[in-house]
Amino acid sequence: MAGRKSPWGSAGGSAGGSGGEGQPSGGSGDGADDGKASGEGPRNPWLPPASGNDGPRRSASIEDIFRARSKRGGGGGGSFPNFPFRPDGRSWAPWIVLGVIALWLLTTAVHRIGPQERGVVATFGKYSRELTPGTSLTLPWPVQTVTVRDVTSIRRDSIPEGEGERLMLTSDQNLVDLSYLVRWNIKDLKQYLFQIADPEKTVKEVAEAAMRQSIAEVSLNDAMGAGRAQIEQSTRLRMQQVLDAYKAGISIQGVEIKKTDPPAKVVDAFKEVLAAQQDAQSSINRAEAWAQQLTARAQGDAIAFDKVYSQYKLAPEVTKRRLYYETMERVLSKNNKVIIEAPGTIPYLPLPPQMTQPAPSASDSSASGGN
Questions:
Q1: Residues facing 149 on adjacent strands
Q2: What pTM was computed for the model?
Q3: Which residues have a Cβ under 8 Å from the Cβ of 130 and sit 6 or more positions away?
Q4: Measured between alpha carbons, how far is 362 from 371 in angstroms, rounded to an integer?
Q5: Nearest to 246 by CA among 191, 285, 294
Q6: How buried is 140 (Cβ within 10 angstroms: 0-12 exposed, 13-18 middle, 19+ buried)?
Q7: Are 205 and 222 found together in one domain?
Q8: How confident is the model over 41-90, as pLDDT tens digits?
Q9: 318 located within any domain
Q10: What is the pLDDT of residues 184-212, one digit of tens each?
Q11: What is residue 28's predicted lDDT score, i.e. its pLDDT?
Q12: What is the total count of domains within the chain?
C-alpha cells in the first residue's frame, strides 16, 4: 500500500507530511489532509458528506447506510422502486393495493354459471355445495374454490382412437376388428368430481370391458350382421350398471358400432369364405322357394279334387262322363292324329304332316315337269 492514501486515514499524526517511506517528495498537501483527518478521526467512505466540508467523522450503522441510500433514490441490488406520487404529494400505493384486493375478490368470489353448466364449491378441498345457473358468491380463493362443468352436452369417445386395430373374440372362436362410439354425459357433478380420479379414462375402460363381454356372447355372423343392435344395447346396459356401482355420476346415452371387420392378415380368406356362404345361402333360398311353389300347387290340386269329389257324390254318372270328356280333350288337343269312326270316311288323313312340310320351289317343279 506504499504510495497510496488509506480511505480510513491514519490513527495518529505519524502519517503527516514528514515524508515517510514511500512518500513522494513535495507531498505537503497530502500531509495536510492526513493531519486534518488525524485530528478529526477516520472518514467513513460509505456515508455522504453532510455539507461542503467533511465535518466530524463517526462510525455508521446499517440503518444509516440504508437511510442514506433511500434518500438518494438509489436502485442498487435489493432496493424497491419508488411509487409515483399523486398531485397532492401523497403516494398511490394504498390505491394500488386496494385495486389488487378488489380484483382478487372479483375473480375468486363472484361466479357466473351458464344455463348448461353446474358448479361445485369446495371449502379447503372438501365438498360444500352446488351452484345452479346464474350469478353466485363464494368465499375468495384459497378458502373456497369453484369447479364448473357442462352437464347437458353429450360427450363422444371413439374406441379405439385413430386408425388402431382392436381385436375381440366371438363365441365361435373368431377374431373381429371392432371400433365403436360411446355417447355419455354428466348426471351428478358431485360424484363425477369427487368419486373417481379420472372419469373420462374410466368410461373408456368400462366401455371396452363391456364390449368384449357382449362380443363373446355372439357369433361372428351376428357381430357383422343382424346382431349389432343387440350388441349395442347389451353394452350400454352393462356400462351403466358398472358406472352406477362406481358412483361415477355418468349417464351412458348410447353405444354405436362403426366397423366390424376381420383381422387385416386374414381379410382375403375371410372374403372368400363369406362369398361361399352367400352362394350357399342363395341356393338354399331358391330351393325353399321352389318347395313353397310345389306345396302351394299340391294344396290347390287337393282343394280342386275335394270340390270334384263333392260333385261326384251328388251325381256319379254325370261326373264320370264329364271327367272323361275333359281328359280326352286335354290329351287329344296336343296330338296331330284325328280318328273318326263314321261310315264312308277315310279313317286316317295325315293332314298335319302335309301342312308342316315346306312347299316345293320353282326349280324343283320344272325339273319334275321335264322328267
A1: 118
A2: 0.51
A3: 118, 119, 120, 121, 189, 190
A4: 14
A5: 191
A6: middle
A7: yes
A8: 555 565 555 555 555 555 556 666 656 555 554 444 444 556 566 677 67
A9: no
A10: 999 999 999 999 999 999 999 999 999 99
A11: 42
A12: 3
Nearest-Å Rg of the Cα atoms of the chain is 58
Domain housing 169: 155-261
Rounded CA separation 142/160 (Å): 40
Q: Say whether both 119 and 182 belong to one domain.
A: no
Exposed / middle / buried, residue 312 (Cβ in 10 Å: 0-12, 13-18, 19+): middle
Q: Taking the C-alpha atoms of 232, 234, 238 and 240 in order, what is their torsion angle to the nearest 10 degrees? A: 60
Start-end of H helices in the chain: 28-40, 62-72, 93-109, 189-194, 199-215, 220-224, 228-246, 267-314, 316-332, 351-356, 362-370
CA distance 137 to 68: 49
Examine the fold and report which residue of 150, 165, 199 is the final residue of a domain before the chain moves on: 150
Residue 333: which residues within 8 A CB-CB, separation 6 or more?
Answer: none
The letter for the amino acid at 248 is: A
Cell representation of residue 30: 497530502
Q: How far apart are CA 300 and CA 237, in angstroms?
A: 51
Instruction: Name the amino acid, one letter, at 299.
Output: Q
For the record, the C-alpha cell of 164 comes out as 388402431
**Cβ contact 263:174 at 8 Å:** no
SS3 138: coil
Q: How many residues does this entry show for the chain?
A: 371
